[in-house]
Specification:
The protein is an all-beta fold. It has no helices and eight strands. A hairpin with a 2-residue loop joins strand 3 and strand 4 (about 30-35).
Length: about 70
Amino acid sequence: EGLRALAFDAALGLAVGDEAGVSWLHAGRWSRAQLPAVTDLAFDRAGRLWIGTTSGLHFWSGDARPQRRP
């Protein structure tokens, strides 16, 4: 599982994308989501993590699980 993308949020949280999903250090703890291979990561102004994958776009907001963008 090679590293494919990194992103920092305004509070210096860290998101790490790889071939099997994304890990997010948010509010002092790590969370992991299994997703298709990650191609890009970005945070918006509201703090949501946007995740580009080989099968489409997902977003992750706080304690909720990632959702696929329709």
